[in-house]
Design goal:
The complex is a heterodimer of chains A (about 425) and B (about 200). Chain A is mostly helical and about 425 residues long. In chain A, about 65% of the residues lie in helices and about 5% in strands. In chain A, strand 4 and strand 5 form a beta hairpin. The chains are: A mainly alpha (about 425), B mainly alpha (about 200).
């Protein structure tokens, strides 16, 4: 049967061997390490339990206003337009527009801002520690006095922040995605920390929290490696000069491409799901007294990781079919690199088109659940996209069998060498 | 066939696409990372985290033209040793890595980044080592795909394991690690490439 033949081809390939080494290696070095010890209950009476982002206008407005004035006086604005750190310097025209926003928020005119000479950046400064030594402490920036008028509503303030973000070019600290996290953080109380801890046992049944962490680590690898297996499988006919022979066979293009695609997805997904079961055993053993949901990690793996395997495999097949393995790897590599480097928040910050979804923590269930609809949309989107790309590959393959696309491929894209 | 002839034929037929991709990586780097007025450590980020992929795209496909068994059989029947041809390819590919890295670091300097020769050597070392991984796996397995894959796995291990990798950590300058590790990476690359050539000669590949 063709399906088993294709599976056999994949299972005995070097790319599959490297895939297994990588997946098992990531499991052993990353996930296993985090599943060595039980999560400890927060102790009462600690000075610091960290902070959490909470939208409190009374905290957010002065914080964001200070930040904007500080960056204006600095002469550049920090932004992550496509996920990477950038210092954006504005033109005179845009600086004037930014000054208008600051004037509306703070009452400070452009002339006053430009003439302010006592500006001192925030950062660290050395202070006496009381024992004759010095310790570094955060230093507040020296800024002109900022008084937000009482007439300024929160809605108008956020509207102005969106304008400021647009002037900077997006991805700034004032964008809708970042403003609360950057300027409205409140100290976490013991009760908050305890509630978060209890969520792991009550709502997540322990394994739910570990399922997110497992998928976070595995997602890095399975979002890129299937493209190699797909490209190698698709290229195998060309490499063994069997292309023309297969073109002449009776089997339909739909059946051939779909069989290969499903063989790829199943052979690449099975090792990950097996590891998910092993992870479940490990977690259940770590918490013998708690009732754990044994299937949470495998279930989450199917929903979270299989769309990544499908997308990467589909893209690998399509680009190898129309051009070469090199181009397939390059395209998937660019998408993968862009995604892993743009994940500035590693917990819960999952957008509708995020390729590599991250949640690198056993905690922060709420952050994940707040974005759960986005997450669902995201995974369905990549699944559908993978199927659309596969349909495109079927069309390409059938056109090539007819002889139509070979001419285009040779003349426009160039001869494939891989 | 003379050295010049081998060089010109290979540059014409086996280098162009890979060189274009390497240049594309260098051109894309300022699009994704800021390279203006960066201090020493911040300047290490683009040159250690993205630029080293030029090593992958230039060194991994050294054996690509003869990946097909029939072509390799024809090549082996020629008077010129096949591995000499591969050695020439390595030399010009490494020269291209040095050239692109050098231009990029100078461009950063022009953009008022605090870059020194250490950034150049550090970036070159990471590129060379990443490329050496791809070259070795591709050469020994006769599969360029496996070579590319190995570099991605190694790069991912750097993201996950960070400085636990010791001298093999590619992003050591970003984390303020020992600079002397970069010289070790270059030395290791040369040793690994030599071992691969020795093994290929022994295996008569």
């Amino acid at each position: 049967m063709l399906f088993f033949k294709e599976c056999k081809k994949i299972l005995f390939s070097l790319t599959f061997l490297i895939y297994i080494v990588a997946v098992v290696g990531f499991y052993m070095t990353q996930f296993s390490h985090d599943a060595e010890e039980e999560i400890s209950q927060p102790r009462q009476g600690l000075e610091d339990y960290g902070t959490i982002a909470k939208e409190v206008p009374e905290i957010l407005m002065p914080g964001a206003a200070n930040g904007l004035v500080s960056e204006y006086l600095n002469g550049y604005y920090v932004a992550y337009p496509i996920g990477f750190y950038k210092e954006v310097k504005l033109s005179e025209k845009k600086t004037a527009k930014m000054a208008e926003i600051i004037t509306e928020i703070t009452g400070i005119s452009k002339e006053e801002l430009d003439g302010f000479s006592d500006f001192d950046e925030s950062g660290m400064t050395m202070m006496p520690d009381g024992n004759g030594g010095y310790i570094p402490v955060p230093k507040e920036p020296t800024l002109p006095e900022i008084n937000i008028p009482d007439t300024m509503t929160y809605e108008r303030f956020r509207e102005l922040m969106r304008k400021a973000d647009k002037i900077i070019g997006g991805g700034s600290q004032y964008s809708d995605n970042n403003i609360v996290d950057n300027f409205s953080r409140v100290p976490k109380t013991y009760e908050d920390a305890l509630a978060e801890y209890n969520d792991i046992f009550e709502k997540d049944k322990v394994t739910g929290a570990y399922a997110r962490l497992f998928c976070d680590y595995m997602g890095i690898i399975v979002s890129i490696l299937p493209v190699f297996a797909a490209a190698a499988l698709t290229n195998a006919d060309r490499k063994s000069r069997m292309e023309q022979l297969i073109y002449a066979r009776k089997i339909s293009s739909v059946k051939l491409v779909l069989t290969r695609f499903s063989a790829l997805v199943i052979t690449l997904a099975v090792p990950v799901i097996l590891l998910a079961f092993i992870a479940s055993f490990r977690v259940a053993k770590l918490y013998p007294e708690n009732s754990t949901d044994f299937f949470a990690i495998p279930q989450m793996s199917v929903g979270w990781l299989v769309p990544n395997i499908m997308f990467s495999a589909a893209l690998g097949m399509a680009f190898t079919e129309i051009s070469s393995q090199l181009i397939a790897v390059f395209v998937q590599g660019v998408l993968w690199f862009g995604s892993i480097m743009s994940d500035t928040e590693l917990t819960g910050d999952i957008g509708r088109s995020t390729l590599v979804c991250r949640h690198n923590s056993l905690y922060d269930r709420n952050a994940f659940m707040e974005n759960f609809n986005e997450f669902l949309f995201n995974r369905i989107f990549y699944t559908v996209l993978a199927l659309v790309i596969t349909a495109f590959t079927i069309w390409i393959y059938s056109e090539k069998r007819k002889g139509g696309l070979n001419v285009i491929r040779k003349n426009i894209i160039g001869k494939s060498k891989t | 066939m003379s050295f010049a002839k081998i060089l010109s034929v290979n540059l014409k037929h086996n280098f162009r696409v890979h060189f274009i991709l390497a240049v594309l990586i260098a051109v894309l780097t300022p699009v994704v990372f800021s390279i203006s007025s960066l201090d020493t450590r911040a300047a290490a980020q683009p040159i250690e985290m993205l630029l080293p992929f030029i090593g992958t795209v230039l060194l991994t496909p050294i054996f690509l033209p003869e990946q097909n068994q029939e072509i390799r059989d024809v090549i082996r029947s020629k008077k010129t040793d096949y591995l000499i041809v591969c050695l020439i390819r390595i030399i010009y590919s490494v020269a291209a890595v040095i050239f692109i890295t050098g231009i990029f670091v100078l461009f950063m300097k022009y953009n008022e980044c605090e870059v020194t020769y250490r950034h150049f050597v550090g970036s070159f070392a990471s590129s060379l080592f990443l490329g050496t991984i791809g070259f070795s796996v591709a050469g020994l397995s006769n599969s360029v795909s496996a070579g590319y894959m190995a570099t991605i796995v190694y790069y991912s291990a750097n993201i996950g394991l960070k400085d636990k990798l010791g001298i093999f950590y590619l992003f050591s300058m970003c984390g303020g690690g020992e600079f002397s590790d970069k010289y070790l990476l270059i030395l290791l690359s040369v040793i690994i490439i030599s071992i691969v050539f020795f093994l290929l000669k022994k295996l008569d590949k």
